[in-house]
Amino acid sequence: MSEESELKREIGAFGAFSMGYADVGADIYISLGLIALYALQAAPIALLIASITYITTGLSYAELASTYPVAGGAHYYAYKAFGKLNGFLAGWGLMLDYTVDIALFSLAAVGYLGFLVEAFWGSEIILMNPYYGVCAIALILALIVLNIIGIKYSSRFNEVFVMFDLFTVGVLLLSGIVTLILSGRAVTWFNSLSNIGDTPSWSGFAYAITLSMASYIGIESISQAAEETKNPKRIIPMATKAAIISVLIVALTASLLSVTLLDVSTIGSRAQDPMVALASSIPYIGGLLSLWIGFMGFMICYVSTNTGIIGVSRVTFSMGRLNLSPQIFRKVHSRFRTPYVTIIIFPFIAIAIIVSNIFLSSLDLLELVASLYNFGALISYMYVNLALVVLHKESKGVGWRTPYVIRVPYHGKKTELPLVPIIGFISCFIIWVMMVITHEQGRLLGFAWFSLGAILYLVMHLKKRRRKNE
């Protein structure tokens, strides 16, 4: 093995897009039913409000990643703008999200696979403990091997699955839109929005907005692999904008169809496979389409598991290179040029989460995604947006730049102030505060995770000081 910390540039435009789309696009396969459970007919509105954070933060990532095309993303930008401690905290938040992502989406993939097994063979065995968890662990182990061999193969794996998903979702949404137009239910839905405040209640609607944010976590996956992307200054902004538009179309349209073609109670009760429930509502082709959607649900959730491994391995690798984490994370495989240590360690932490789920079957994984998933990501996103405000001047003539920049007086001269990251920070902060207030589990576990990170950082700092004194 080699200590040399260099990565190969092997990811093209569609590969970069696939990382962002797969990581974010898979969220709707899980969160669609849960959002409808609390927002009722206002689920599309909750998703639309949460999308402000998604759009602005995605554009902030695009500018920063094209200016600093290195592995890592949020923690690197926070490190450049605010120093080591803030860089560590930004990265620590993403480490939590990606590790949870690996566990969550491997289980979600098995959930959709279980639907197919039941449909064809009439057996629910895959959905029962311990087989449910064991299958998820097997899926993760296969991805560990794939990622150690090389990101070129891992990226191609993503690309193939994403192409199938784009086609499948396109057929589903077009069929659903035609059905909605012919049914005339759109007018009924629009009129029902006047009941927001009663059905759903304002507290339920606010809670749904925090859950909706879970549908938009993952756009940072594109910038995490910036160091392995060909021509990152051109490809990363293009791939990021394409992923933002694609995910918004899918999420908002699927949500609208789910609360118009189905009863809200029906989609709310299908938290494990909401997209299958939506496909089943399409006349004539619903039976066949639901089977294909079940297959695609398995595929895209498995791809999201893969992007979780790619993301956490690149974050920890980059943090090790900046002396923000143990130096063992810097190790690169001598043959495959991949950060094999981090590729192994964090998926095994995810496996430990799954093992705990085997023994604690009452654990609510959807509550976990609403809690841990959002908690760390929103903190990292706040760092990204603030970092762009500080570092915006560095991108001039170097990388792609966000729109809507104003000039304000500062120390006797005009200084550029980008509005996109300011809106992004404010929206992230508001949703994070809402989440902390309304999610008790997320509040406790999230603060516990960051407390553990603070202790780890302090220990590393004291060890480094002791070595200097010696």
SS-based class: mainly alpha
Distance between the termini: 29 Å
The proportion of residues forming helix, as a percent range, comes to: over 70%
Number of spatially distinct domains: 1
Radius of gyration: 22 Å
Unreliable stretches (pLDDT < 50, length at least 5) are: none
Placed side by side, the strands forming the largest sheet appear as 1-2
Number of strands: 2
Mean pLDDT figure: 86
Main beta-sheet annotation: 2 strands, antiparallel
What is the annotated CATH architecture?
A: Up-down Bundle
Net shape: globular
Say what the CATH topology is: Amino acid/polyamine transporter I
Corresponding CATH superfamily: Amino acid/polyamine transporter I
Give the DSSP E fraction (strand runs of 2 or more residues): under 5%
Reading off the top of the CATH hierarchy, the class is best stated as Mainly Alpha
Number of helices: 18
Listing every helix as H and every strand as E from the N terminus to the C terminus, the arrangement reads: HHHHHHHHHHHHHHHHEEHH
Task: Give your account of this protein's structure.
- The chain contains 18 helices and two strands.
- The protein has helices spanning 13-25, 28-39, 43-67, 74-82, 84-121, 131-149, 151-183, 185-192, 202-213, 221-224, 232-260, 264-268, 274-280, 286-321, 340-359, 365-391, 419-438, 440-469; strands spanning 405-410, 413-418.
- The protein has 470 residues and is an all-alpha fold.
- The protein has a two-stranded antiparallel ribbon with strand order 1-2.
- The longest helix has 38 residues, at 84-121.
- The two termini are 29 Å apart.
- The chain has a single domain (13-469), classed as Amino acid/polyamine transporter I, CATH 1.20.1740.
